[in-house]
Design goal:
mainly alpha; Arc Repressor Mutant, subunit A; Tetracycline Repressor, domain 2; 2 domains; 8 helices; elongated
Length: 199
């Protein structure tokens, strides 16, 4: 039996569909996604995906939730592996975020558009909070240590996010004028931190 036609165990079809959905998303964009297409590519009946996803939106929500969990895991690993200082941790988290953004461009766009959409699924909103929460934690710890001045940690974290997301967006569009992405991330992190430092 050809590999594409081999039946999947009940417990693995969901992940197979999500993996194929992400591949399709990165290749053809969100408009290329459909349960019927995924079923055909996975070699299962058209009805089989409905056992795991009631409709296309449920598939997209699951894809987004999984994406945020993967991003969070990568950011947390960068945080833990960096030198135990907020400045080093910010740089490590920023670099990891930009790498993820460039590697999973279509997925990241779907993640944020879904999270911010009216009536977004509660699971999506909750999963999408963790990356920002980690940045807020870095800022809060730096303030507590006296490394940076006072201010709303959430607003400061949002500025940091905008900075590094902007770098990723420019890099994806080939608009960095040849500057290496990692060097620009490091420079932005350093500039950002020096701007927050106590006088």
């Amino acid at each position: 039996m050809p590999a594409a036609e081999q039946p999947y165990h009940h417990g693995s079809l969901r992940q197979v569909l999500l993996t194929r959905a992400e591949n399709t998303l990165e290749k053809d964009g969100v408009d290329g996604l459909s349960l019927r297409r995924l079923a055909r590519e996975a070699g299962v009946s058209h009805a089989a995906p409905s056992k795991h996803f009631r409709d296309r939106q449920a598939l997209l929500d699951a894809l987004v939730e999984q994406g945020f969990h993967r991003l969070t895991k990568a950011l947390e690993q960068a945080f833990e592996q960096a030198e135990p200082h907020p400045r080093a941790r910010l740089g490590a988290v920023a670099g990891t975020y930009v790498t993820f953004a460039l590697t999973h461009r279509e997925l990241l766009a779907l993640m944020y558009s879904s999270k911010l959409a009216p009536g977004a699924a509660a699971e999506v909103v909750e999963a999408g909070r963790t990356p920002m929460d980690l940045t807020v934690r870095i800022i809060t710890e730096a303030q507590a240590a006296g490394d940076i001045g006072p201010g709303d940690p959430w607003h400061i974290a949002l500025v940091a996010f905008a900075t590094f997301h902007g770098i990723a967006t420019l890099a994806a569009g080939g608009m960095l004028y040849g500057a290496p992405v990692d060097e620009l991330v490091a420079a932005a992190s350093d500039t950002f931190w020096r701007g927050l430092a106590r006088e």
